[in-house]
Amino acid sequence: MSNQMIQQKPINKHGKNVAIIAYFTIIGWIIALLMFGQKPTRLAAFHLRQSLGLFLTGVVLSFIPLIGWILVIPLLVLWLIGLIQACEGEAKPLPMVGNFYQQTLRYVI
């Protein structure tokens, strides 16, 4: 999706709804991606990348005994921060991992 096709401002309700839905399980993420395809916005793209990054990190951590399972707790905190930011219509990267997710997943969404 080219940057020219993605709406810039103002943050509309559709983009905010997509951003919020993206944080609710992988099924919610897929639904949000389909909604994003109908009317792409920068806010929605940002949160789709953040939530996908969190999901993929959680999958990787689940395969690491003990240490990975313990690290899931801070991941849940990051998930909550991302969800709150989506609800507020903000596009701030998550602490420690957000910029990495944006750079790594920019070609996916």
Low-pLDDT segments, ≥5 res: none
Largest sheet composition:
none
Q: Compute the average pLDDT.
A: 89
Shape: globular
Number of helices: 5
Q: What is the helical fraction, as a range of percent? A: 55-70%
The structure class reads: mainly alpha
* β-strand amount: under 5%
Radius of gyration: 14 Å
- Note the gap between the termini: 7 Å
Sketch the topology as an H/E string, one letter per element. Answer: HHHHH
The total of beta strands comes to 0
Describe the structure.
67% of the residues lie in helices and 0% in strands. It is an all-alpha fold and 109 residues long. The N and C termini lie close together (7 Å).
Brief synopsis:
The protein is mostly helical and 109 residues long. It has helices at 13-21, 25-38, 42-62, 67-88, 98-104.
Which secondary structure elements does this structure contain, and how are they paired or packed?
Layout: H1 13-21, H2 25-38, H3 42-62, H4 67-88, H5 98-104
Helix pairs in contact: 1-2, 1-3, 1-4, 2-3, 3-4
